[in-house]
Amino acid sequence: MAKCPFCGAEISTPVRHSDECPSCKKILHSCRCCSFYSPDSHFGCRETIDEPVWDKEKANFCDYFRLTEKASANKDDERATKSREALKNLFSF
Predict the structure, then answer these.
(1) Which residues pair with 63 in a beta bridge?
(2) With contact defined as beta carbons under 8 Å apart, do 9 and 33 qualify?
(3) Three-state DSSP class for residue 20
(4) Looking at residue 71, what is its pLDDT?
(5) Helix or strand holding residue 87 (H, E)
(6) pLDDT value of residue 45
(7) Phi-psi region at 91: left, alpha or beta (left = phi > 0; alpha = psi -120 to 50)
(8) How far, in Å, CA of 52 to CA of 65, rounded?
(9) Which has the closest alpha carbon to 2: 31, 46, 42, 13?
(10) What is the pLDDT of residue 76?
(11) Among 14, 18, 17, which residue's Cα sits nearest to residue 1?
(12) Which neighbouring-strand residues pair with 67?
């Protein structure tokens, strides 16, 4: 079984277009949940796509979609919080 990239709940595969996480209710077939998602890449995807998906958190019909193995959303939030704390500590006198 796969896990939700947002909350870590177990997800049955394959993920269809309209599937959402049973725990956090977030859409699973979206760019943010895809293993090819990369904000730094062309159109935000490491695959060669012809048209961009503008809203990365909404469901889409991308044929390249592959549910990511990692909980990237939570790790990104944690990393951002730790970075802000480090900057705050660095510049506080």
Answers:
(1) none
(2) no
(3) strand
(4) 58
(5) helix 72-91
(6) 92
(7) alpha
(8) 14
(9) 13
(10) 56
(11) 14
(12) 34
Token couple for 81: 């919080």
Closest CA to 65 of 54, 75, 77, 56: 56
At 77, list the tokens.
Answer: 């939030």
Residue type (1 letter), 24: C
Q: What is the pLDDT of residue 70?
A: 67
* C-alpha to C-alpha distance for 70 and 75, rounded to whole angstroms: 9
The list of the chain residues with pLDDT below 70 reads 70-78, 93
The DSSP annotation for 42-85 comes to GGGBSS--SS--S-TTS----TT--B-SS-HHHHHHHHHHHHHH
Query: Residue for token digits 């725990």?
Result: 23
Query: Nearest-CA neighbor of 58 among 15, 35, 23, 29?
Result: 29
